[in-house]
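Marked as duplicate of an earlier ticket. Keeping the data here for the record.
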Amino acid sequence: MSGAPEVIIREMTAADLDFATALTHQAGWASESLDAFAAFLAHDASGCFIAEAGSEKAGVCIATKYARHGFIGELIVSKHLRLLGIGLLLFQKALDHLLAAGVESICLDGDLNAVSYYEKMGFRKVCRSLRFRGKFKGRKHDHIRALRPEEMDRLCALDREFFDDDRSFFLRWRAEKFPRLCMVAEREGRINGWIMARPGDGVLAVGPWAALEPSDAAPLLEHLASEHGTEYFRLGVLEKNTAAVQLLRSWPGLQEGIHSWFMVRHSSAPASGDPVEARRDGLQRQLGDHPALYAIGSGAKG
């Protein structure tokens, strides 16, 4: 009887993009796309990992490193190979990559069945990461318009303030690839909010969605829907942003799906005591924890 195939973890290449995309679609991850993986690869190939079992591609995981923080995502293994421990190997590879980079904290969106494992690895729950999906009719607003290329520097500066790190590579990538899906709210000549989206598997994945004033949040989403009213929308928001949650739960046509947990591991995680109390002083410095950010999707992609 032959033994289990040898498992190796290697860096992703452009030749793996179709595999990674197909794997997420088979799992029902509608917001993922080939373009999303292409952006990860272009941003930092050293943090994009593929697992092989024997001669077969078996799984994928992405470790995104910003200036100060990191994010682990896109962790998935082919269903018929999940008993080989490949997911654990991929996760450890991604974690080691970010720890070696010396980031201040590492975040992830933890599926419910994996939360206990992540907690053993030093991650702590911050809040629920909620999912909304639906199709609805929007309406136009005079102060909402398309994002202009010359506004990217200003938008990225605002996003750094809200997001607490520099993810401008992904924002610029999205604006260049999908200009019709990137819009701003303009008040007295100033950017007062913005919304971006990208195509997924039969959906438009929305994020980032930011509003300096709460009154601009709904108009941004409505205007986007007015331009793309035949599409299904998919949004992810953090439960801590109560304004975003209340707005989406009251929005006709949107349905709330199964949540995950937004989790964080600090470079010096609390060794004992209540984890919620122990991290209270650092809570405001976590990725995406700003009331002006409505839909962040994930720390990696917005």
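See parent ticket for discussion. Confidence is low (pLDDT under 50) at residues 269-284.
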